[in-house]
């Protein structure tokens, strides 16, 4: 018999709050979410996605038009240009905020008036699966909750995590170089608040169960507004205990299980995604036993794929891919190669040597990139991420610098991403092949602004209508590849994947549909030289008819070979699914 919802919830809460009346707390959470104690559970190991799922990541105001709210302009752009290409849209924090382009939230239940309103959000949610950020680790120092913390009144008095400068905090893992503890004057004296990311982003105190109840209420409101995919921002840092690294603690994993349990009992088709920009082995723990995140970001993919394409050597990418466990049914990966943040370097720990990391950093620097740092427990500053637009990151090679293969290299990167096990996600500036925005960096003083440009819709439409612009060439080819991908059963996010061994200049893997009726051999020339592929090395089944889905080329002689131009890809399929 399935254990009733309340009993499951109580057992999880007892791990986090062993000193509290968890039966009463469970009742509060269920009431807040509008759930019955014996609510029917969703089907076990249910995949809320298929091969047609493609995510677009964008800020609410990336595309703008005079005299129109940006959320309305975004909806217009999606409908005109991408309705046949994407199934989901991730709108980065669209709430009132004080810094960090939205991630210092002042009010979780309001839409930034300069972007639009809840009606605009709901309108987009009716046409696409909508992903929103649950900025759960911290809140703005200018929020009402924090003002109440200063005044020592509720709600907010005990909502933020406090530290003591005398505590041993040497083991705390930091993603930034800013001070961890910041002094704050309150109505009953000076207190030190914990700030993992910045002085304006004060960490919330989940040791206070009232904070958990507040977030249950927030989640329910989001679900009622049409949000169906929840990105748990910076969730790895959620629980703090001085004397520990304060990352990946057991209570953090248990809180994710609790949130997932509440969300999926409310809406069985909802999806929880954890954002944990950490080394690969640590990242994988957020699947739990298929009871934490439905989806985790493949954080190692961006730096490894960029490194592969600028070195012309796929050894590390291939080694990583072979080490990745197949996701259980009901879980999968989110594949991306660019985002609103930089290219994370921590996910390369254990995958690239220090010398290889430095070579990648030097190459990106020569292509106009910047580097953000983090503070290690021993007080040293280490590269945390490379800030660069993906189109410019791929403008040349580490050995020879800039060359004329930029567009082909850029398309190759996305062709790899589209075929891998998992759900593909396109950052809007990659889909548009936007270059480094150094002027914006100078204007804001923030390195991440290099890849956070804003387009005027008229200018963008003009670029996309010009067949000679690299924006149009990239956009049209990526849309064509997306259309092909969305029709292939072998590209289901949970379809079988095996790595091929074709040398260092050819990166290949095999996908097979869950019904085993379609095989696709995905082979990519990741070098700037022509490569030959002997078909005997791929082991194509002789009784099947094989065709490259990308070029339309058919293969009649399985004893022969195919020639791949620099950065060319083929998707060799035994089942033709027309677009």
From TrEMBL:
<dbReference type="InterPro" id="IPR033746">
    <property type="entry name" value="GGa_phosphorylase"/>
</dbReference>
<dbReference type="InterPro" id="IPR045857">
    <property type="entry name" value="O16G_dom_2"/>
</dbReference>
<dbReference type="InterPro" id="IPR013780">
    <property type="entry name" value="Glyco_hydro_b"/>
</dbReference>
<dbReference type="GO" id="GO:0016757">
    <property type="term" value="F:glycosyltransferase activity"/>
</dbReference>
<dbReference type="GO" id="GO:0005975">
    <property type="term" value="P:carbohydrate metabolic process"/>
</dbReference>
<protein>
    <submittedName>
        <fullName>Alpha amylase, catalytic region</fullName>
    </submittedName>
</protein>
<feature type="binding site">
    <location>
        <begin position="340"/>
        <end position="341"/>
    </location>
    <ligand>
        <name>substrate</name>
    </ligand>
</feature>
<dbReference type="InterPro" id="IPR016377">
    <property type="entry name" value="Sucrose_GGa_phosphorylase-rel"/>
</dbReference>
<dbReference type="InterPro" id="IPR006047">
    <property type="entry name" value="GH13_cat_dom"/>
</dbReference>
<feature type="binding site">
    <location>
        <position position="448"/>
    </location>
    <ligand>
        <name>substrate</name>
    </ligand>
</feature>
<dbReference type="InterPro" id="IPR017853">
    <property type="entry name" value="GH"/>
</dbReference>
<keyword id="KW-0808">Transferase</keyword>
<feature type="binding site">
    <location>
        <begin position="231"/>
        <end position="233"/>
    </location>
    <ligand>
        <name>substrate</name>
    </ligand>
</feature>
<keyword id="KW-0328">Glycosyltransferase</keyword>
<feature type="binding site">
    <location>
        <position position="100"/>
    </location>
    <ligand>
        <name>substrate</name>
    </ligand>
</feature>
<feature type="domain" description="Glycosyl hydrolase family 13 catalytic">
    <location>
        <begin position="53"/>
        <end position="485"/>
    </location>
</feature>
<dbReference type="Pfam" id="PF00128">
    <property type="entry name" value="Alpha-amylase"/>
</dbReference>
<feature type="binding site">
    <location>
        <position position="138"/>
    </location>
    <ligand>
        <name>substrate</name>
    </ligand>
</feature>
